[in-house]
Amino acid sequence: MKKETIKAGQITIDFLLEAADTNGAAAMFEFTVPAGAKTPLPHYHEHYDETIYGLSGVLTFTVDGKITDINPGETCFIPRGVVHGFDNLKQNDAKGLTIITPALLGPVFFREVADIVNQPGTPDLKKLGMVMAKHGLVPVVPKR
């Protein structure tokens, strides 16, 4: 059962489970990425792992420098400390299911990000970085 829907920029997050539902063991949400959507900077998580399961469309993940397309029914495991990011490079919307273990990331993070990125104009990257740090995400600026 869907608990909460959060729209952060062009990405929609539908929370299914959070820490209170699983005694802190796991959080789970679906996320929809429109074709060509702006996506978060590459980052890593300090204290939790992330597993992605493709539901529809194709999500292109870069994990530790390796590019992987995740099609429906395919999975990708991202251990804590590993730099990763994602894009939707195809012509159709893509949807994935994310499981966070343990449940150290929840709806509060996405609400705080939405408050920043949903404002008119360019998002305040300093505020965004502070929200990420508060929730255990470390942004990694790509090398040019």
UniProtKB/TrEMBL annotation:
SUPFAM superfamilies: RmlC-like cupins (SSF51182). InterPro entries: Cupin_2, QDO-like, RmlC-like_jellyroll, RmlC_Cupin_sf. Coiled coil: none annotated. Residues 30-99 form the Cupin type-2 domain. This is Cupin domain protein. It comes from Parafilimonas terrae.
